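note to self: dont lose this again. the chain is below, predicted strucutre after it. 283 aa total, dont forget to put it in the shared folder this time
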Amino acid sequence: MRTGIIVASVLALGLCGCRPAADGQGKAELVADVESIQPGVPFMAGLLITLPEGWHTYWLNPGDSGMAPELKWQLPDGFTTGPILWPAPKRFEDSSIVSFGYDRQVLLLQEIRPPADLAVDREYTFELGALWLVCRDTCESKTGRFVLTLRALAGPAVASARWRELFQRTRAEVPKHDPAWKFRAVADDKVLSLFAAPPRDVGSMLIARSAFFPSVPNLVEYGEGAWKRAGDEYRLGMKRISGGGPLPESLQGVLVPPGGQGVGAIEVDVALDLGGAKAYTRT
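---
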């Protein structure tokens, strides 16, 4: 969990159909949910990181320590990408250090969009440069370049049987907007409060055991706060790191209910009411 000494490690080039780049701190590979592509039809691809027992990597907000993975594509002409679809993170603690991320395995998904006038019956090469951090007692920085080659066909894209289950599972782990949940957020000079009004069929015990992960770093302290009933809502008070510092226009993050409850991770993106902090500026 503690950052410790960061040692750069360059992983070998990963090629489609070849063995993944690997070392003693895990392996990484570039994977796609298709084996061929079709003009104008998006597909999904991403960096798959697999870690040994006891190691973890990081979410877009790494918490008190760490670094979010950085991905940079080099695409054929006319192709574009969507944003990284981050699966819901986990919480890791080491003494007073709290970090957010993933253990065992994580797939960082992105949508790849081919142009509608893409020439068929030819192969296209996709390159991904990646930088990520893996940690146990100390941390090591990993870098790698990965190459994926896919053929464009006139007919429908051929789905990847090998990676089908992985992509299905990862999509289910990506937080979703749920209009049945109502959120609001209020800040003063010391505390930022998230209020949640869940659907009627969601019990208080589920709320009490749910974790909130803010997307913006260095906004609040990451101690585990308790949800408290406030009328028809539940309130989570989070101590601001810099009481007089600037505030964003909205509070963004992920609400993660306990596993096995039939409720997936919920995307939170709500306007931030300055409340008692009206004298403080926005970012």
